[in-house]
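Field reference: "sequence" (input) and "structure" (output). Example, Fumarylacetoacetate hydrolase family protein:
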Amino acid sequence: MKIARFDHQGQLGYGILDEETNELVKLYGDPLYVGFETTEERISVDEVQILAPFIPRSKVIAFGRNYAAHAAEHGTTVPEDPMMFLKPNTSVIGPDAPIILPPQSEQVEHEVELAVVIGHIARNVPAEDASKVIFGYTVSNDVTARDLQRSDGQWSRAKGFDSFCPTGPFIETDFDPSEGAVLCRVNGELRQEGDLNLMERGVGELIEYASSVFTLLPGDILLTGTPAGVGPLNHGDVVECEIEGLGVLRNPVIGSKK
């Protein structure tokens, strides 16, 4: 099922998407943290603002260079061990919220990625048991200030600006992450085109590695890397990230507010 978090006339809620009617079946409770029950109430998707499915209470864990072609376009190779870094939860925004270009950077780029939402407290999870700790999957954009990534020597600033982790539009709880088209378009122009089956390390292996370092908590988001074709974002652009079966994440881009 596809779960959305939404704002309807100032009231926040969760709903299960009925794709036949384009309606949300409203839920009582919190699907991730406390559980939920369905209600009798339905509301059209067109009448609500879809928000980021969840704002992590803890962390966004991301992996770089997990597609060989993307590593190659930056003149490097897939590392022997997974390349892991963190993004703050304040970087997460939802569909249609603006990506804000910071004044500190002159080269901000898009990176479409599969996002894994953790559903249980987990530590030292074997790859073969990873599915037991996953709540679902969604689309994300690991927005990156490429010039700062190169100059800083570490990635916290380049990856961590507010609005640099668009996520959504839905969490799909029944999804096979082993294959599926991964696309990014800017102003309708196809920039990135790959497939989940091109990931060097699959979701299970990434969860095993991350959980050997951090305790994973419900609501943590794990980003799995981006295919080749990353490119610049400029004021006025509209960027669309899409993963087959998960939907389209669309965000406008605006200049910095100094």
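The chain has a mean pLDDT of 95.
The first strand starts at residue 2 and ends at 8.
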